[in-house]
Amino acid sequence: MSDNRKAVCVVGWPAGHSRSPLIHQYWMKKHGIDAEYRKEAIPPEQFADFITHLRERGYVGCNVTVPHKQAAMELTVADDRAKAVGAANTLWFDGDKLRSTNTDVEGFLANLDQTTPGWDRGLESAVVLGAGGGARAVVYALIQRDVQRIHVVNRSPERAEALRARFGARVNVAQWGEMTGLLGGAGLLVNTTSLGMVGQPQIDINLRCPMSMVVSDLVYVPLETKLLAAARDKGLRVADGLGMLLHQAVRGFELWFGVKPEVTPELRKVIEEDLAPMAAPKPASPDKTVKPRAPKKPRG
Length: 300
Description:
Elements lengths: L5 E7 L7 H12 L3 E7 L2 H9 L8 E4 L4 H6 L2 E2 L1 H6 L4 E5 L2 E5 L2 H12 L9 E5 L3 H12 L4 E5 L3 H11 L3 E4 L4 H5 L4 E4 L10 E2 L10 E4 L8 H9 L2 E3 L1 H8 L1 H8 L7 H15 L9 E2 L10
Parallel strand pairs: 1-2, 1-3, 4-6, 7-8, 7-10, 8-9, 10-12, 11-14, 12-13
Antiparallel strand pairs: 3-5, 5-6
Helix pairs in contact: 5-6, 5-10
């Protein structure tokens, strides 16, 4: 590698599952950029040292994946998005400062804007399944689009309460048993959990909702989860997790190389083909479903 050739990487533990190299290498070739994108499997106890000496290792920036996103935010000059979400996934140098952001926010919004244009027009109420890192990014994104009511549904109410404490009164903590009632007045349903992923239980929800409602799933293996299939069958517009994965990569590439790439059908096809073997059904994994639980009857 020549001395002036730029290098970036994805840092995780493990890092082998990441599709970031494939995405960025596609764009490098597309734009004629002589650069290298590597995978760096770094255990948590070595992460701080790795990031502190990122430039000395020859990198102009990096992506960060689990379990390092919170630590990455704390070790860098984080922007408002990273601070709000509590995690950073994209790092770059600004002079001598190593800055960070969370591109899951714009990846989520850009995916919906591209696949379901007008989804946020007049949107007042949304339902978000899950209360982890993905949910924090989605809730922050919805607040940026001025959604007035965001119902967070999670098995553990404590984690959902933490989102309300972080983002304020627009967040309403709800139970799975309330789902049908909530969907009746919602314009958007987002699954941020791992439910529906290959090897995980599927989500079985009665989509008793307006025909204008959009259904988004952050899962991308398989590309069409049971939730998205049910939404398509009902005639609802949907946005899958692969679109978000592709769109969240755009800003990092622009920050590192000064070129804003496009998410095209050709790129999507490349990643779909790479993911196809992972989505193949495994006989040992039965088709389990998770249904919303009915609320408990009050005693008395």
